[in-house]
Amino acid sequence: MQTLAHLGDGGPGAWILFFPLIWAAVVIGGITLLRRTGWRGRGGPGGPTGGSPASPVALLGRRFASGEIDEEEYWRRLSVLDEQFGRGGGSGAA
Q: Is the overall model pTM greater than 0.90, yes or no?
């Protein structure tokens, strides 16, 4: 009886079973390399930013939206940013 690996007649033997593992390692390594070098796109979560850094007002808005700061802290910091940078980000603070 002849098996896939041709164990008894001088074929490649059990080593033939390692080739799919080698290809899987190459594919996984390639995907990992592409993901770490920015293949996912620019500016996505966990990825590099594509252009200019986020404005302070936008960063403050994200912190408020995620619950890191409360509404009172948001308005207080926004008023300080408006004094320092002018009307940046189109926020509706009065």
A: no
